[in-house]
Amino acid sequence: MNKQQFLRPAIAGLIASLLCHAGLTNAAVSAEEALKLKSELTPLGAEKAGNREGTIPAWTGGYTKVPSGYKPGNVRPDPFSDEKPLYSITAKNMAEYADKLSDGQQVLLKKYPSYRIDVYPTHRTAAAPQSVYDNTLKNATRAKSSANGYSINGAFGGIPFPIPKNGAEAMWNHQLRWQGESVLYSHAAYVMSGGKPLLAATVHAEMSFPYFFKEDSLETFKGDYWHLYQVTTAPAYKAGESFLVRDPVDYEAKGRQAWQYLVGQRRVRRGPSLAYDTPNSVTSGVDFFDEVSLFLGALDKYQWKLVGKKEMYIPYNDNKFFQKTPEEVLGQNYLNPDDVRWELHRVWVVEATLAPGKRHVIPKKKFYLDEDTWDAVLYDGWDAQSQLWHSGMALPILAFEYPGVITYPFSIQDLLKGSYQATIINGQPTQYGQVPRWPESNFTPESMAARGVN
Q1: Residues 182-213: pLDDT tens digits?
Q2: N or C: which end of the chain has fewer CB within 10 A?
Q3: Rounded-to-integer distance, Cα 204 and Cα 133, Å
Q4: Is 182 exposed, middle or buried (0-12, 13-18, 19+ CB in 10 A)?
Q5: 431: domain range?
Q6: Helix, strand, coil share of the chain (percent; to 5)
Q7: Number of other CB atoms surrounding residue 378 within 10 Å
Q8: How far is Cα 207 from Cα 180, in angstroms, rounded to an integer?
Q9: CA of residue 446 relative to chain centroid, distance
Q10: In this predicted model, what pLDDT tens digit does every residue of 387-400 receive, in sequence order?
């Protein structure tokens, strides 16, 4: 082989590599396109107008009226308590509505004749503080993704990609949706076994979202968008177990930092397995760590496709649900349809397929993101045999005092085993309340160790 013959494949490989890496960075939108956020789009990127049929109203600023006497962390009243369902979707009439139902919901309707979806009038209650709107507008022209969407930069304090160009950007919008600055809440995870709810764990959780700290800026932001400290309080044999998680916007450079404290060992250990398809110990392994809130964590396992936007029936404004006891809302095979409010909204549809060289027990996923909040509200996952396996729903809370629509409570259905778990705040002492900013030292392994010993 002469020198020229030797160089040809090397040069070709170099060119291919350069072309590949050239596609790893996605540019922000133009200033002209970003101005749509001040006209035809809402400040977070949704279509401001309603639909042609009038079944989805125009967005007029969301719902921000705080009821008299309400205290953060208390059970939130339902401002739509007087409303009745417009109609119900059952196995008998589902064909009429199939184009607006997720695959998972269609399976539930077919599998359980008593399951139904009660559809109420649509209220576009989503809102956020003005600072979130201002930063979203700035992010539109400065935020960029890299490493095939694995990391982002140039974003702070608002939705990073209000006018997304690909699936990874849309999923980052879900990750960085408005959920408050510092939060205290408690939740219980129930697992259905033999038709009866079993308490898997009760958890006390403290969270910070440094990405949204109003006193900071893009220049002073340190790179972690989410800090979590949570400790299990029940049942007795799990009490004291705790997690600490710090997630960055640059997963490629830093990655998730996680620790766990095991009472029997009385020591803090690194927790690299608290991610991806590791069974979620809080729910006794019914779902996986990256299915928390339907999706949580790094995006590198998948290739993400932005399918487009469509009208769908999704859970929304479910304050009524959280006023009930766990026993009232937990049905034998699914959440009690009497208590789940569904509305017609526009959603972004994102498909995830396993990336080359990666492994995950759920190689194909589909997400439905509410256009007004970027919350993932419905999710379906298929196994390696292309069987629909897991199906999830979030239960959005109208949190008028934030203001915002919050989707931390969620449920994951195992459609193959016929079981489900529900991570809910019903009956808990603090239902996702805002608190003064937690000190950063609250989210360190040293602090975690000190709490464990005490």
Answers
A1: 999 999 999 987 778 899 999 999 999 999 99
A2: C
A3: 31
A4: buried
A5: 36-453
A6: 20, 30, 45
A7: 25
A8: 9
A9: 29
A10: 999 999 999 999 99
